[in-house]
Amino acid sequence: MLRNLTLFALLLCASVNAQVTQEIFESFKLQERRDVKYYFPEDYDEKKKYPLIVVLDAEYLFDQVVANAKFYNQFHGMPASIIVGINQSEKSIRFDDCAWDEENGLPSEKGKKFFEFLGMEIIPYLDLNYSTAPFKMVVGYDITANYTNYWLFKENSLFNAYINISPTLAPEMESRVPSRLAAFDKQMFYELIVEGEKSKETPKIMAMDKAIKAIDKETLHYNFQLYKGADHISIATYGIGKAFDNIFGMFKPISPKEYKEQILTSEEPVYQYLENKYKGIEELFSIKKTVDLNDIMAIYAASRKKEDIESLKPLSDLCKEEFPETMLGFYFEGEYYEQMGEPKKALKTFEKAFGMNEIDFLTKEMALEKIDALKADFGY
């Protein structure tokens, strides 16, 4: 079956375990060979799903995107991702790939073929041969940033997230982009990164920014980043990390700010917040994320602070699944029974906790103190 794909693509020869490979892709749509770079996480596992990030102007942006993706994944800021970069600098081929008709602002004939090359060859090839998640992102700079917007013109956008770095906008794009973003009902992320140095593009970019900000839609997540000290060249090195921070914010562990401003102020049961967070991650990224210990402790602390006893029971059940060798689940369950006025059940549960591994701030001494206190109070 894979051999049939060689009618339009030269299959990867390198092992998936390699972090970065560069290959020649034989494109049927373009009728030419293109240099393509691939990054696969070191611990790539075909049983897991990985968001796909497409990087145009790969000679300049690919290494930056890979470095930021690895950093944010290492510190839990985003899921491990597969990244593909399209080289476009040789013989300035990017100007042919991304050219538009000056009258209508739409892709030229070569631009249409490049559109099909990415959407009908590169991405399907990766989807078929690797464990990609439905969530896809595209990154572009200058004219390639403008080019990424053409996917918004499709009824169903191929990408869920766009990182536009200092776009050189085609005619009418400042009104077309906001119009298309307003039309989608699915979750969409749009990051616009610009320099402080003024240029002929500045009025159009600012008009587009104003129009997008006027869109009142919960499914649209828009962020505008203006870096005053940057010019049109240096801006390519700014903002990618911040954009990842915005796009994958849901994936990050609960922060102190999130704890104070969202969990403690919510009228819903504390545990519901954790449940919604991880359900949202799975729905958006098609990834079942392991629950962070940080998040467990945040929900535990909030349950105690808000005297939300009921949240301790589902939290304890979750801990038994996620941290089965530790005392976490039984200790929280013991506190639940203790607070509910069921000392016998509490005593037995703390005894179970005492026989298991310590974790975080929970120690055997703490379980023993609970056991001794219950025995003293109730004469067991």
Give an overview of the whole structure:
With 380 residues, the chain is α/β, with parallel strands linked by helices. The chain folds into 2 domains: 2-251, Rossmann fold, CATH 3.40.50; 256-378, Serine Threonine Protein Phosphatase 5, Tetratricopeptide repeat (Alpha Horseshoe), CATH 1.25.40.10. Helices cover 44% and strands 15% of the residues. It has 14 helices and 8 strands. It has helices at 58-74, 93-97, 109-129, 143-148, 173-183, 202-213, 240-247, 256-263, 270-285, 293-305, 312-322, 328-339, 343-354, 364-378; strands at 20-27, 32-39, 50-55, 82-86, 132-141, 161-165, 188-195, 220-227. Strands 1-2-4-3-5-6-7-8 form an 8-stranded mixed beta sheet, with helices on both faces. Helix 5 (173-183) links the parallel strand 6 (161-165) and strand 7 (188-195). Helix 1 crosses helix 7. The radius of gyration is 26 Å and the shape is elongated. It starts with 19 loop residues before the first strand and ends with a helix. Residues 1-17 have low confidence and may be disordered.
